[in-house]
Amino acid sequence: MPMFLFMYWMTGANISIYSIMFTVQMATGPITQIMGLKTSFKQFEHASVNLNLPKLLFIACNCATLCLALYKFANMGIIPVLPMDWAGLFSARVSIEQSQVIVI
Q1: 3-state SS of the chain?
Q2: Residues 12, 76: contact at Cβ < 8 Å?
Q3: Stretch 77-88: mean pLDDT, rounded?
Q4: Among 31, 52, 63, 70, which residue has the least CB neighbours within 10 Å?
Q5: What's the whole-model pTM score?
Q6: Of 32, 27, 18, 6, residue with least CA distance to 73
Q7: At 59, is the pLDDT very low, low, confident or very high (cuts 50, 70, 90)?
């Protein structure tokens, strides 16, 4: 994981095939890990062991990794987060009244 985070940091905020591939891998990895939660903890399940807290911590760490990937997507400009990104959805205002001042 530390090597992957180092490669993730080294890709920067430029849009290239490598940075997009690393970021997509960084975003899909936690989702697949959360979906496979039961298989990940199957070997540790015993009658006397409570795994609720470790499972919650596992989900929290994967959510933090997913948020990091979404932050990277936002910095690269792939996810629309700025008001300027949504400007095409709004129509221009049409003035109903017009006034003018005549100076004599």
Answers
A1: CHHHHHHHHHCCCCCCHHHHHHHHHHHHHHHHHHHCHHHHCHHHCCCCCCCHHHHHHHHHHHHHHHHHHHHHHHHHCCCCCCHHHHHHHCCCCCCCCCCCCCCC
A2: no
A3: 83
A4: 52
A5: 0.73
A6: 27
A7: very high
